[in-house]
């Protein structure tokens, strides 16, 4: 009986260690974007980052990354443009206060490179985006970064026009600190 109990405990511990993931707490994040407008490249940022990053390089298929930013924090360097982009035709910040990104699958490529498939939700429209990821871990810290391009019209952000481009390039860089207790995922 004692041997059976010890065997059961050992199997449970082995099973838990196989799915234990390291939790990373964001300490600093930058979310930037660029788009062509009237022949110029307009850049901006979003603030109010919130994220949950669960990752162990030994088990990339178990990675769970989710993040969001506040739409009302959009900053392009011009106050009138910022206010215009918060209105209903663009981000409708009053109705949709956050933009969400959640991983559905992550695959290791080589070294610190990964490819992630994410659900991106803007204005209650969710579409899959593929993001090449770079994850560099140094001791108890790690930096997660990725860049991708999306078509703003697919998310009902603005209307088609001659002056403003449709493609928006987004870059996300998140610096993190390892939380000492691994979390278990299933």
UniProtKB/TrEMBL annotation:
<dbReference type="InterPro" id="IPR036761">
    <property type="entry name" value="TTHA0802/YceI-like_sf"/>
</dbReference>
<dbReference type="InterPro" id="IPR007372">
    <property type="entry name" value="Lipid/polyisoprenoid-bd_YceI"/>
</dbReference>
<protein>
    <submittedName>
        <fullName>YceI family protein</fullName>
    </submittedName>
</protein>
<dbReference type="Pfam" id="PF04264">
    <property type="entry name" value="YceI"/>
</dbReference>
<feature type="domain" description="Lipid/polyisoprenoid-binding YceI-like">
    <location>
        <begin position="23"/>
        <end position="177"/>
    </location>
</feature>
């Amino acid at each position: 009986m004692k041997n059976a109990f010890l065997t059961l405990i050992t199997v449970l511990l082995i099973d838990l260690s196989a799915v234990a993931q390291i939790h990373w707490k964001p300490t600093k994040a930058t979310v930037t974007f660029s788009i062509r407008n009237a022949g110029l490249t307009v850049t901006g940022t979003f603030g109010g980052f919130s994220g949950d990053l669960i990752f162990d390089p030994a088990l990339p298929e178990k990675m769970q990354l989710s993040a969001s930013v506040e739409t009302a924090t959009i900053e392009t360097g011009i106050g009138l443009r910022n206010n215009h982009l918060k209105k209903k035709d663009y981000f409708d910040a009053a109705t949709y206060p956050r933009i969400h990104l959640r991983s559905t699958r992550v695959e290791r490529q080589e070294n610190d490179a990964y490819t992630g498939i994410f659900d991106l939700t803007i204005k209650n429209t969710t579409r899959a985006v593929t993001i090449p990821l770079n994850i560099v871990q140094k001791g108890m810290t790690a930096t997660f970064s990725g860049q991708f391009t999306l078509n703003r019209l697919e998310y009902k952000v603005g209307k088609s026009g001659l002056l403003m481009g449709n493609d928006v390039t987004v870059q996300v860089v998140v610096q993190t600190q390892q939380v000492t207790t691994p979390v278990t995922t299933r």
